[in-house]
């Protein structure tokens, strides 16, 4: 039998190690916030100098016309901050298997961010192009997601899903198509949500916080760090994105961060909880699907005044800041439920 004193000492060591994990993640989150805040201003100035401004859809809410020309591609500052901090503090340990797990999510960010940047550059204020076609973006997102799904299944040996109150259920090779769907769907959902100042950034920060806690409870130390450094970068972005926004996330940020959130959810095994933790992303996406479907079925009638959902509330008279805050409130409640279910 293990002596009680030895068992107590072991439990104390484990507890101290877990405290150290969270302390490191929180400090690196704060550092990422400072780094992103510092690099954010020159990035915005350079975007403005080069005329990289957002083109606003004429058919959108008329109140958005004042946003025409606002610097876009703000997602660059977010993933630059995340890359810099993780490179400095984690790169020397990438030979260790657990830390090497950072390579996949960061590569996904780079790939999806590049795709989004190309779209942003083609869809500038004053230009004739409307950016990449939806079909083209969907195709390349699927290619990226397929590569990520294969790595997750064969390299990280992930082949199951976790059902709350039941446990793990093996799904074998079917994990790959599910991973592809989760990554593509989440990336597009976040992109649709990037329509109001602070909306997508705030909801993403809440979702990454929930998965950071889940990863902490699982002992996935470096996924915890990745989640919280992403939160730090998002908070710095929100500093500049606060209404009226000085910079817009653009597809550069929305596609890459949506894909990153999906990969994190898959790596924790709690991807079934993603529709709950990211409830507002789901609601916004469903509003678009329902609007299009209802329009076709009824020969031109509309279910909402305008889709996505946040535009509907704008046309009802809600202020932009009011919509973002209320969506955040629902997002907080949903994230709390998601974390609670992860404990079941």
UniProtKB/TrEMBL annotation:
Cite the InterPro entries for this sequence: Glycosyl_transferase_4 (IPR000715), PNAcMuramoyl-5peptid_Trfase (IPR003524), PNAcMuramoyl-5peptid_Trfase_CS (IPR018480)
Molecular-function GO terms, alphabetical: metal ion binding; phospho-N-acetylmuramoyl-pentapeptide-transferase activity; UDP-N-acetylmuramoyl-L-alanyl-D-glutamyl-meso-2,6-diaminopimelyl-D-alanyl-D-alanine:undecaprenyl-phosphate transferase activity
Q: What is the protein's membrane topology class?
A: Multi-pass membrane protein
Q: Does the keyword Cell division apply?
A: yes
Its localization reads: Cell membrane; Membrane
Q: Which residues form a coiled coil?
A: none
Which family is annotated? Belongs to the glycosyltransferase 4 family. MraY subfamily.
Q: What's the protein called, per UniProt?
A: Phospho-N-acetylmuramoyl-pentapeptide-transferase
């Amino acid at each position: 039998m293990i002596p009680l004193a030895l068992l107590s000492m072991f439990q104390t060591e484990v507890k101290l190690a877990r405290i150290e994990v969270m302390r490191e993640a929180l400090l690196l989150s704060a550092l990422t916030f400072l780094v992103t805040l510092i690099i954010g201003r020159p990035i915005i100035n350079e975007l403005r100098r080069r005329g990289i401004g957002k083109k606003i859809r004429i058919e959108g809410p008329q109140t958005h016309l004042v946003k025409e020309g606002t610097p876009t591609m703000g997602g660059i500052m977010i993933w630059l901050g995340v890359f810099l901090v993780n490179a400095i503090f984690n790169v020397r340990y990438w030979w260790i298997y657990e830390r090497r797990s950072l390579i996949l999510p960061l590569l996904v960010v780079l790939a999806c961010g590049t795709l989004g940047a190309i779209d942003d550059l083609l869809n500038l204020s004053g230009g004739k192009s409307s950016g990449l076609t939806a079909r083209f973006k969907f195709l390349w997102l699927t290619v990226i997601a397929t590569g990520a799904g294969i790595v997750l299944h064969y390299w990280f040996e992930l082949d199951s899903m976790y059902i709350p109150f039941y446990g793990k259920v093996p799904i074998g090779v079917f994990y790959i198509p599910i991973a592809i769907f989760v990554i593509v769907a989440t990336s597009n959902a976040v992109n649709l949500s990037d329509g109001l100042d602070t909306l997508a950034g705030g909801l993403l920060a809440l979702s990454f916080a929930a998965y950071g806690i889940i990863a902490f409870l699982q002992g996935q130390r470096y996924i915890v760090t990745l989640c919280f450094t992403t939160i730090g970068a998002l908070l710095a972005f929100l500093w500049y994105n606060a209404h009226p926004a000085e910079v817009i996330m653009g597809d550069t940020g929305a596609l890459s961060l949506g894909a990153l959130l999906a990969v994190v959810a898959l790596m924790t095994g709690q991807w079934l909880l993603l529709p709950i933790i990211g409830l507002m992303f789901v609601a916004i996406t469903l509003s678009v699907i329902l609007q299009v479907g209802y329009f076709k079925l009824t020969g031109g009638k509309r279910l909402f005044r305008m889709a996505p959902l946040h535009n509907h509330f704008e046309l009802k008279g809600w202020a932009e800041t009011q919509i973002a805050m209320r969506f955040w409130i629902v997002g907080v409640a949903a994230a709390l439920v998601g974390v609670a279910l992860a404990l079941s």
